[in-house]
Amino acid sequence: MNFPRFGARNQPQNRNRLELDLTDVVVYAIGDVHGCHSELVSLERKIVADAAARPGQKLIVMLGDYINRGPDSARVLDHLLAPPPEGFYRICLCGNHEVQLLDYLDGNSPRDNWLGAGARTTLFSYGVDIEYLRRLYGDGDRLDAHIRSAIPPEHVAFMRGLPIMAFSRRFAFVHAGIRPGVPLLEQDDLDLLYIREPFFEGAGRLDRWVVHGHTPVESPLMQGRRLAIDTGAYKTGRLSAVRIAGKGGKFLQS
What we know:
Layout: E1 7-9, E2 17-19, E3 25-30, H1 37-51, E4 57-62, H2 73-81, E5 88-92, H3 96-105, H4 111-125, H5 130-137, H6 141-150, H7 153-160, E6 165-167, E7 171-174, H8 189-194, H9 197-201, E8 209-212, E9 221-223, E10 226-228, H10 233-236, E11 240-245, E12 248-253
Parallel strand pairs: 2-6, 3-4, 4-5, 7-8, 8-10
Antiparallel strand pairs: 1-2, 3-11, 6-7, 9-10, 11-12
């Protein structure tokens, strides 16, 4: 089964933006997973059941932040590296937590900054006890070398290759949001990964629906033309998705 209408546009020094033709495509966007593997599997089962009665091609769009905070970051990445559910395509977008890990691995960010973002649970998921290693190796280069060696190269390559946005004529899918008034292909990566208030304040001026995570909400939230679906799975046990088909939509939760 081919899906030839997906295309990529490379931006200099930026992650890829993917332009989509969503004609006759049923899209399921999933919010921030944050190491919650069991919730992701449960939600995917509900998506498969929901999609069974709907015609057209099926696409899952993951909105980033697959790691940190929750207990099973390594398993989540393994899951996303495996084929999607039968009959589905899947696009995984980049979140700020993936970039923070890469910044640490590349020596561009201090270890403690990364650990402060909830990375201890990520290390545990790779079998690494940071406090034990500190007693064993101290707090210097040997500790960093051990941490870097514990993360599989295929996980690192997956995170390096993640696009930062997928968009169609009516929708944009992104981790944090967009800066209102800036064309999509000119959006700054940092805004796409981290923006909050300027995006929220300009939600009524957007030229298309923007589906995003990053900022946890108690339940999926529509404001202006933004749709927030990060329901804090690592704290609440509720991983959320939205189904988009034609002009209709439906929320699903794990």
